[in-house]
Design a protein that fits this description.
The protein has 497 residues and is an alpha+beta fold. It has 2 domains: 212 residues, no CATH class; 227 residues, no CATH class. The protein contains 10 helices and 21 strands. β6 and β7 form a beta hairpin. α5 runs antiparallel to α6.
């Protein structure tokens, strides 16, 4: 990737000058862009809930018919807009004309839900035009090289349609039965489908999206927490059907559930081998290992590569059975992403509960700008989802009343937290940092977190032994010798909670 345009400023230390990258001219600042995205995320009260639909055979056929109709509407609409765009004729008035044309074409089949599908397509084009404006101004991030118009809801190799159903917010409602599920009623289609899932928030429902993936139906339900529905749609108010025994959700009408119990600050260096390395101003050090995430990724990488190789071999030889292996390939990719997502969210929830119980009010997260923008590789692109992790942290920590702030981490890994000098060969094998002045050793990621605290004007003194954990699909396990942890140990329970 081409390096961003900028210049290097310096900060004098005992060991010399530490260079610091500063974007200049029209080049975008990725750190500022992510900060703006976080601020926008904190300004709304939306939360999404995923429900598993359990339709009967008859209901499955009905959903498939509705889904194919929605896909035809989206693809036909998108095709006409793409043709107009390539001819240079796609104006706002032209888009409105196309939308109106296809709304009346599909109104009899989908009712007013055709409007939801059209709005979904309009949102995709709006995002595309926004990227085009940034490209003309030269403000696209360096890692984005090409901006393409919205694509179709279909698989590129097989042409098989990707089933999506969009339901307007006032054309469905939920009928909870117990804390594990209930019925989803699609009013325009006369369907009452059983669903499984736990809802912990309360508020006004948004546009429903139903997808069919890997032979399963899922409904994605957006909830504007604490917001009352309009008087014309009294059934559009979602109420929680579940409250876990740990009491995480006290007031379902508010995203913020707790106030901090202290005024401590925490500083976190994120990585892959050590997913989270956190130090706090009251002397705690916390390490969450990411070895399980790497193992999970590489196992599924082998499975995906096998299906892909067999698929391509059969396809090039002209055998129709390649379609079967292509479907297995897509299923493996989906399963890998779901399992990695579960591991990340499990570790984030554990981190939030632990820091809250230690009295942390604010968390500073280091942003590795040079790594994420100019050194893309398998580790920091496919395995390490930095942007997603940060946004998930913001969402979860908001429930605990902990503020999150991104700060640059220029050369925090090279500077010694013990003597303050820069040792070119300070970081050695297996993540240790050795002070070349007095020979003391410290974990390299903890060293970076301490330096991050120093840059923010805080002096951190480690007064307790490092707490090490590893994230698994069955919870977060301790790695301290005295706990004698293994994969059969129960999930760590915080006594404060």
């Amino acid at each position: 990737m081409a390096p961003p345009v900028g210049e290097y400023a310096g900060r004098m230390t005992q060991g010399g000058t530490i260079p610091r990258f500063v974007p200049t001219g029209g080049d975008p600042d990725p750190l500022q862009a992510l900060k703006e995205e976080i601020a926008e995320r904190l300004s709304d009260n939306w939360r999404d809930v995923r429900l598993r639909l359990l339709p009967s055979d008859v209901e499955h056929g009905s959903l498939m018919g509705i889904g194919l109709t929605c896909v035809r509407l989206y693809n036909e609409l998108n095709y006409e807009k793409r043709q107009a765009f390539f001819k240079g004729e796609l104006t706002r008035a032209k888009m409105y004309e196309i939308d109106r044309k296809y709304y009346y074409k599909y109104k009899d089949a989908l009712g007013v839900n055709a409007q939801a599908v059209i709005r979904k397509n309009d949102e995709a084009w709006k995002s595309f035009f926004k990227l085009l404006k940034l490209k003309k101004r030269g403000r696209l991030p360096p890692h984005i090289r090409k901006v393409s118009p919205p694509g179709y809801w279909k698989d590129r190799l097989t042409g098989k349609k990707e089933i999506h159903i969009l339901i307007r917010s006032d054309r469905y409602h939920l009928e909870p039965i117990d804390e594990n599920g209930g019925y989803l009623v699609l009013e325009d289609f006369g369907l009452r489908i059983r669903y499984a899932g736990r809802i912990k928030w309360e508020g006004r429902q948004g546009r429903l999206e139903i997808i069919y993936v890997n032979g399963r139906w899922y409904a994605y339900l957006p909830i504007e927490v604490g917001r009352e529905p309009p008087k014309s749609n009294k059934k559009g108010y979602v109420r929680p059907n579940h409250k876990d025994g740990r009491g995480r959700i006290v007031n379902p009408r508010s995203i913020k559930q707790r106030d901090p119990i202290g005024d401590e600050k925490a500083f976190m260096d994120m990585g892959l081998n050590n997913l989270f390395a956190v130090v706090t101003t009251n002397g705690y050090v916390l390490l969450v290992k990411g070895g399980t995430i790497k193992s999970e990724y590489y196992w599924w990488k082998r499975e995906i590569a096998t299906y892909q190789a067999v698929r391509d071999l059969l396809r090039n030889a002209g055998f129709p059975t390649w379609v079967y292996y292509h479907e297995r390939y897509l299923e493996a990719v989906y399963t890998r992403d779901e399992r990695l997502r579960h591991l990340y969210l499990t570790s984030i929830r554990f981190l939030a509960e632990t820091l809250w119980s230690r009295g942390v009010r604010k968390l500073y997260i280091g942003y590795p700008i040079m790594l994420s923008q100019n050194n893309g590789n398998e580790y920091n692109t496919n395995i390490w989802w930095y942007r997603k992790i940060v946004l998930w942290i913001v969402d979860v920590f908001r429930e605990y009343g902990i503020e999150v702030e991104l700060v640059p981490e220029y050369y925090t890994s090279r500077e010694c937290s013990i003597c303050g000098e820069v040792h070119e060969n300070g970081r050695i094998y297996r993540g240790l940092y050795v002070c070349r002045r007095n020979g003391m050793k410290v974990n390299a990621d903890v060293n970076a977190a301490i330096n991050m605290a120093r840059k923010q004007g805080y002096k951190v003194k480690i007064t307790r032994k490092i707490e090490s954990y590893i994230v698994t699909h069955n919870g977060v396990k301790p790695l301290n010798p005295d706990r004698r942890a293994n994969t059969q140990d129960p999930e760590i329970r915080n006594p404060v909670l």
